[in-house]
């Protein structure tokens, strides 16, 4: 059973979290290359909220950003074209963004299975709060009310990168997220479905700490790992 080092980063700019992920990925890769402590591999799981930002995946379309640079500047929203999969999404306060940096050599070599496990982690978390999360065939993410295209709405977006079987980037779960900024993009490049949050579905504000604990608990369950807390990861 693998041990995963957990760090809750609080509210942080996207660029700082991205840089930290790259540092940890390099650390894992170097340790693997040197053959150091292969019986005790490194894995990390970062959880944070971001200052308002739009991120566009490497396969995303720039025209899915509907706002002008001037509008973004006026609203204080940053924009990054990044190296994950997927299209465009929004990150902001009230949203838990999870970044697992796992060495899949010690789990499994199957990126589709990996994304499926992340989705399952969120589905189990939502269930604990009385929300039924579902998948839509052919579309990554966790959704609500999938029986009719007109009512289906995404509550958690996913976009990952895997380099030498080491993962980075991850998921964004809308907990108490303000949804208005999603109107400035075509979320995940999908025009005929909307976005929602746990607060929107339940009609009340949700305790962020309780959601954090649920995510950690279900991540351990799905990935069959042990999460250990650390405050020693330098930002």
Describe the 3D structure:
- The protein has 235 residues and is α/β, with parallel strands linked by helices.
- The protein has a single domain, classed as Bira Bifunctional Protein, Domain 2 (BirA Bifunctional Protein, domain 2, 2-Layer Sandwich).
- It has helices at 14-34, 69-75, 111-128, 198-202, 208-223; strands spanning 2-12, 44-50, 53-56, 78-81, 88-91, 95-101, 134-136, 139-144, 153-163, 166-174, 194-195, 225-229.
- Strands 1, 2, 6, 7, 8, 9, 10, 11 and 12 form a nine-stranded mixed β-sheet that branches. A three-stranded mixed β-sheet has the order 4-3-5, with no helix packed on it.
- The chain is globular.
- It starts with a strand and ends in a 6-residue tail after the last strand.
- The model has no long low-confidence stretch (mean pLDDT 93).
Can you give me a brief rundown of this structure?
Helix content is 29%, strand content 31%. Strand 3, helix 2 and strand 4 form a beta-alpha-beta unit. It starts with a strand and ends in a 6-residue tail after the last strand.
